[in-house]
Amino acid sequence: MRDPQVLVVGAGAAGLVTAITLGRLGIQTLVIEKRSTTSPFPRATGISLRSMELIRSWGLEPRVRAGEIDVASTARIGGPLTQDEGFETSLGMPSPAEARKISPTTAVAAPQDHLEPVLLDHLGTYDCVEVRFDTELVSLDLILLMVAVGAFVGALAAIASFPVALQILLAAGSSAAMLALVRPNLIKLLHTGPDLVTGTRKLVGQQGVVTEPLSAHNPGRAKLAGEIWSACPYDESMTIAAGQMVEVFAIRGATAYVHPVGELMP
Questions:
Q1: What is the Cα–Cα distance from 39 to 133, expressed in whole angstroms?
Q2: Domain assignment of residue 37, given as a range
Q3: pLDDT tens figures, 86-106
Q4: Residue 223 and residue 243 share a domain
Q5: 41 and 122: one domain?
Q6: Do both 41 and 116 map to the same domain?
Q7: Report field, pTM of the whole predicted structure over 0.70
Q8: Handedness of CA 154, 158, 160, 166 (dihedral sign)
Q9: Handedness of CA 75, 77, 79, 84 (dihedral sign)
């Protein structure tokens, strides 16, 4: 394919689904992937209800479900697995019973190394889509700027009436030095955004309310970001009563370590 209308970078699940959608619309699409094949690892396993509705509309539901893992769509928060403590909480997906009330299908747990080959095989049925493995997109960011600096150095050498050979050497050497030493750091700076805080770390610094009294030796419960968490005082000498506002100081495992709002640490 010489002149694709759309370039999709990455042949993971998201890239393959994007290419299938474009292929169904008849859009000339090129998918490139730096790996030599699809993912050899399970990696992401959750396929949402809406994603399964799309997969079903493409006639791929039976093939995807052939690799389904029989697990519950819930998580458990509590103490050590050897102790019968804790409680179940939702992962944000409707249960099969809930899904059947609103949809002809349900969410699926299927490993990525099973899903991607199914999508890739289906993608081969679209003549307007091409997938190239072992192909990486090379960025040309700032290359012309680095060469321009070399040209500027060469121009200065010409103004100073240096020999032509020396002008060429200075221009070439400056460009090479800028490309090797300056450009990588500038690219890193340009492509580096703010730190993304995900998972339980994003709870640190948030406030909640204690629902069950808690102490260092008797963990209680606290409602944080709309969910109930096992909680302990950050200061082991404290006991925090139910109803008190607290701030999350740390998350260790499945336990939040909190401190009363407005009180200074001793």
A1: 12
A2: 1-45+111-138
A3: 777 777 778 888 888 999 999
A4: yes
A5: yes
A6: yes
A7: no
A8: positive
A9: negative
